[in-house]
Amino acid sequence: MRANDAYISIQAVSKHFGPVRAVDDISIDIRSGEFFSLLGASGCGKTTLLRMIAGFESPTHGEIVIEGVPMSQVPPYRRPTNMVFQNYAIFPHLTVSKNLAYGLRYEKIDKAEMNTRVGEALEMVKLGGFGARRSHELSGGQRQRVALARALIKRPKVLLLDEPLGALDKKLRADMQLELRALQESVGITFIFVTHDQEEAMTLSDRIAVMSHGQVLQIASPKELYNRPVNVEVADFIGQMNFIDASVSRMSGERAELDTAGLGRISAPTGEASFFQEGDAIVVAIRPEKLTLSGDRNGGREGVQGVMRAATYLGDRSHYYVDLPGREEPLVVAGSDSGPMDHDPLERGSPVLVSWADDALVLLPRDEALASASREESSSNGT
Amino acid sequence: MTQTHDTLRGRLYAFFLRSEPVRGFALLSPTLLIMLAGMCVPFVILVAMSFWTQHVFEFDTTLSLTNYNEIVDKPMYRVLLTRSLAISGACTVATVLLAYPMAYYVAFHVHRHKMVWIVLMTLPFWSSYLLRVFAWKIILGYNGAINASFMGLGWLEKPLEFLLYSPTAVVITLTHAWAAFAILPIYVSLEKIDRSLLEAATDLGDGPVKRFIGVTLPLSLPGVIAASLLIFIPTVGDFVTPALVGGPDGAMIANLIQVQFARVNNWPMGAALSLAMMVIIAAISLLYIWTARRFTEYGR
Amino acid sequence: MSEISYIQRPNRPLHVYAFGYIAFLYIPVLFLPLFSFNDSIYFAFPIEEFTTEWYRQMFEHQAMHAALANSLKVGAVASVLATVLGVFGAKAVTRYRIPGKKSLIFVIMLPLVVPGILLGVALLLMLSRLGITLSLYTVTMGHVLICTPFAMATLIPRFEGFDRAMEEASADLGANAWSTFWRVTLPMVLPGVVASLLLCFTISFDEFIIAFMLTGTDPTLPIFMYSQLRFPARLPPTVALGSIIIFVSFVVLCFSLWLRRYGVEESASDGVRP
């Protein structure tokens, strides 16, 4: 992206709270009309970054530029941004209509136009006829729509959304995700969306910035993030992943020979990866669904011999856990239930063959923080 | 908004936006400054003046311990100080002891319309303090309610004279006047107790009495401590009650202090007495908090 | 009642005690209205004839009216000032990260733990040093000092009770700080403001010792009543007025409770605060 493409430019922004660096030297360029997500576990700095864009927090260092205007001296109420708050922040002392009209008072429009715009906004979020209600008379989903309409009625250049679907139950969430995406396409403005839910971010976004400990790990489209994570932490955060320790024994052209713990000696395409040399320790990552299981006697196929340890049935698919020699953790393999495994049930303890396509292998630098990162991941999931 | 960029005003504004403590202080400053001016400045003057001495109509501003020496040496001051502390202490104990069962009753045995009971208990305290104290004069007086009814019932030959104008009268009146300050904190601390703790104690074999001593009482101690301090601190310095129902034997330190500023006209002495009273109150309160804290920690 | 658990089963002696205690709280207060209709200047038994003479005298008592007016003025000004200071202070301590916040709150709350006589004396000394003449203004000042901590204590839970995202949402929608205060913050804390005004007014209206030390030639009502208590002949109209004040304050309190109940939904523990 060229620098002048950037509609919102976050330039080397940091935010310190005492000794804590909530946001640590982040630079992001966001395009006009883009659905951009900030994804990360709680405490990664994503909300702080969003609040700095809105103007509720000031950066300790750095500058946020929107449409070429530096924002550091612009108070929140003069910024071309509007926000949907995590708990919606619907004014309880005002009706739905008055909530929507709240921000219009600061625009030079007459009463009639104000009413028209309120009516339109209510229709847009399918709340026609709810104008006279108050916050406590609305359901969670309806509050969410009011918050959305109240922000969009201001016709902002950027809409900021702070985990807006977090308070909704699972079914409603899925519906709202679809609506949100449709809405963004119809209004055509930039959305910056904060979430800790990777599935939600994948569903909604054009691009995602994965954040951790105040820093951006990777900015990419959902597809690229899934298929080409740049490090173990991103790979671990997005979807499920098998990690295999490996060392580079030989490099030749576009390919590398790897000695792995569990898969034995394999050959992998290096692609653009150029962070390692012969003799380096790296990590090989493979998605469970990119592995194939077959009975041991399917002769002639390439792969690694393993022993079935356990299987879990997930409805639309199953996960198989396979023990490999030289590896403590089992390898996770996803299989669809309608596949050949149905006819040939894989029993515990039976020998299996694990195979994969060449492009399934992702080579990543070994991350010393992997252990700690995965521990945090599991603890944040637990809460 | 583009104009403010890089001007001095813009920079100052950016600094103001950036610095949350600055904005916070700006907002707090009116309140804080008024409280500082109204509390700390007078207090400093009070301390300074307590080391001066009065010469007929003039202050001798050389610093001396004359007033404090006099407070220690003259029995009158000592007697009034100790009497104030004793009356206040007795009133605190009586108020807390009487209010505790009431608060307990509302917390544990009232199930519907709790709010009505709370209002019922606090309503009398919204009426004039002065008039409530005066009401006790009617009750305790020579021809007051108690004497009249007891004589009417034939229990007494002639009216009891010791009822009014005595330390006892002051204690009784204060116990009534400050009841709300005991009921509310104790009630709140009792209401906060998780009922399952009491059930657990019962489940583990405690009878009602053991359960009360072992669980309810220790857990409600914060309320008792708060109530004691809320009553003790202001009542030591109470003026109205001893003046109206105390008589000469029931006079307290505040009456003596007030006299220094009126009839006696010895302001430095009044300042020294006020300060001495405050220091003693603070010392007793801190000691009390310290002991109570140790006891509650040990109790848990 | 079968729904009552083992812990909460009825306790007869405690029940009796509770009613006895309520009687102890009320009977002395009710003596005043009783004697305000008694046709004798002595407040002693037995009760004589019924009369409304004292109420008639009360309505003609100029000095009493002046004192009442003084108290109303002082109470109104002091409660408004204290509540304004309380709103500033409560917003500052609940909305901003301020270094040393705890000790600053302690300074503001100090009058709660200082006996009135001490504060009265200290203020008197300061005013005389500054050469300020004692008047209703000085009384008002003293009352602002003692009321502000109560205003803060009433308002802080109000500010804590509403999400600061409300104020941010307002700023986000284009309202500046001033506009946000009037359109969001104040309506949200309004019940607290009303409670604070009532509480501060009652405290000021009833306050004796600070007013006693700081008043000039115009007495407030408690000081006026105190001066009447020594003269039996002047007492009955004062008691008549006192009865009316008791009645009015009961009505106002019940009204404010009703207001709280229907004005906003509140938790039971919130209602405990007077």
Pair with the biggest interface? B-C, 95 and 89 residues
The CATH topology of the largest domain in chain A is: Rossmann fold
Count of strand segments of chain C: 0
H-E string of chain C: HHHHHHHHHHH
- Biggest sheet strand order of chain A reads 6-7-8-3-9-10
Total count of helical runs of at least 4 residues of chain C: 11
Biggest sheet details of chain C: none
- In the CATH hierarchy, the architecture of the largest domain in chain A is 3-Layer(aba) Sandwich
Helix content of chain A: 10-25%
Terminal CA distance of chain C reads 31 Å
CATH architecture annotation of the domain at 65-231 in chain C: Orthogonal Bundle
- What pattern of helices and strands is seen along the backbone of chain A? EEEHEEEHHHEHEHEEHHEEEEEEEEEEH
Shape of chain A: elongated
Overall average residue pLDDT of chain C: 85
CATH homologous superfamily annotation of the domain at 65-231 in chain C: MetI-like
Question: Helicity range of the residues of chain C?
Answer: over 70%
In CATH, the homologous superfamily of the largest domain in chain A goes by the name P-loop containing nucleotide triphosphate hydrolases
Quick one: CATH class of the domain at 65-231 in chain C? Mainly Alpha
* Uncertain spans of chain C: 263-274
**First-residue to last-residue Cα separation of chain A:** 38 Å
CATH topology of the domain at 65-231 in chain C: MetI-like fold
Write a short abstract of this structure:
Chain A is of the alpha+beta class and 383 residues long.
Structure commentary:
The complex is a heterotrimer of chains A (383), B (300) and C (274). Chain A is of the alpha+beta class. Chain A is 24% helix and 33% strand. Chain A has 2 domains: 3-232, P-loop containing nucleotide triphosphate hydrolases (Rossmann fold, 3-Layer(aba) Sandwich); 233-382, RNA polymerase II/Efflux pump adaptor protein, barrel-sandwich hybrid domain (OB fold (Dihydrolipoamide Acetyltransferase, E2P), Beta Barrel). In chain A, strands 6-7-8-3-9-10 form a 6-stranded mixed beta sheet, sandwiched between helices. In chain A, a hairpin with a 3-residue loop joins strand 16 (304-313) and strand 17. Chain A is elongated and about 75 Å long. Residues 369-383 of chain A have low confidence and may be disordered. Chain B is mainly alpha-helical and 300 residues long. Chain B has 2 domains: 8-50, no CATH class; 68-299, MetI-like (MetI-like fold), CATH 1.10.3720.10. Chain B contains 14 helices and 2 strands; from the N terminus they run H-H-E-E-H-H-H-H-H-H-H-H-H-H-H-H. Chain B has a two-stranded antiparallel sheet. In chain B, helix 4 packs parallel to helix 8 (167-177) and helix 4 (75-109) crosses helix 11. The relative contact order of chain B is 0.12. Chain C has 274 residues and is mainly alpha-helical. Chain C has a domain at 65-231: MetI-like fold (Orthogonal Bundle). Helix content of chain C is 72%, strand content 0%. Residues 263-274 of chain C have low confidence and may be disordered. The chains are: A alpha+beta (383), B mainly alpha (300), C mainly alpha (274). Chains in contact: A-B, A-C, B-C. At the B-C interface, helix 2, helix 4, helix 5, helix 6 and helix 7 of B face helix 1, helix 3, helix 4, helix 5 and helix 6 of C.
